[in-house]
C-alpha cells in the first residue's frame, strides 16, 4: 500500500509517465527519497547496506508497476506484441550438485524463475546467491558474461567463485 501511494504521487507529479515506461536510476532515487520523507524510519539512520536494499526494493516496485501497466494494454482478443521492459533482475544461482558452478541469468520475476530451476532438481537445492535490480538486463547480462569469459563453462554457467564479486 505504501509503495502504491508513492507511485501515485510520482505519477501525479510526472516523475513516472502514464502508461509503460523504462525504470531509471533517477526514478529509483526519487522513489526512495519520497518513501523516506513520507514513512520515516523509527529506528533512526539507515546504513549504506539498508539504503542499497531499499533502492533495490524501489526498483522492483517500479518494475512491477510497469509490468502491470503492460498487461493492462494487452487485449486477449487481439494478438499484439508487447515490448518487454528493459529493466529487471540479474541474478546468480548455484546448486551443490554442481560444485563451483554458477549461473548468471536475467528475469522480471525472481521467485518464479527460481521455481523453474527447482523442477530440474528433485531435492530443490537451487539457491539464489546474489541478485541486483538493473535498468537494462540484456546489456548487464552481456557485460557480466564478457567479464567472466575466461571462466565460462557453457552458456551462462561460470566455473569460478570470482563471479560473486560482480554482484557486490
Name its key features.
168 residues; 42% helix; 5 helices; 5-stranded antiparallel β-sheet; alpha+beta
Describe this structure in words.
- The chain has 168 residues and is of the alpha+beta class.
- It has two domains: 2-73, no CATH class; 88-167.
- It is built from five helices and five strands; from the N terminus they run αααββαβαββ.
- It has helices at residues 2-12, 25-38, 48-73, 110-118, 137-147, and strands at 88-94, 102-107, 127-134, 152-154, 157-158.
- A five-stranded antiparallel beta sheet has the order 3-1-2-5-4, sandwiched between helices.
- Helix 1 (2-12) crosses helix 2.
- The chain starts with a helix and ends in a 10-residue tail after the last strand.
- The model has no long low-confidence stretch (mean pLDDT 87).
Amino acid at each position: 500500500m505504501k509503495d502504491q501511494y508513492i507511485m501515485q504521487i510520482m505519477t501525479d507529479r510526472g516523475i513516472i509517465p502514464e502508461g509503460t515506461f523504462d525504470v531509471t536510476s533517477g526514478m529509483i532515487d526519487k522513489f526512495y527519497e519520497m518513501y523516506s520523507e513520507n514513512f520515516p524510519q523509527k529506528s533512526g539512520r539507515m546504513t549504506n547496506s539498508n539504503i542499497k536494499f531499499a533502492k533495490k526494493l524501489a526498483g522492483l516496485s517500479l518494475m512491477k508497476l510497469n509490468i502491470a501497466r503492460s498487461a493492462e494494454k494487452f487485449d486477449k482478443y487481439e494478438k499484439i506484441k508487447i515490448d518487454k521492459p528493459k529493466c529487471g533482475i540479474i541474478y546468480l544461482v548455484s546448486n551443490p550438485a554442481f560444485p563451483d558452478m554458477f549461473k548468471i541469468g536475467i528475469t522480471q520475476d525472481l521467485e518464479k524463475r527460481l521455481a523453474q530451476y527447482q523442477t530440474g532438481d528433485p531435492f530443490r537445492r537451487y539457491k539464489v546467491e546474489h541478485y541486483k535490480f538493473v535498468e537494462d538486463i540484456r546489456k548487464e547480462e552481456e557485460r557480466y558474461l564478457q567479464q567472466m569469459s575466461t571462466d565460462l563453462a557453457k552458456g551462462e554457467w561460470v566455473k569460478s567463485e570470482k563471479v560473486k564479486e560482480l554482484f557486490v
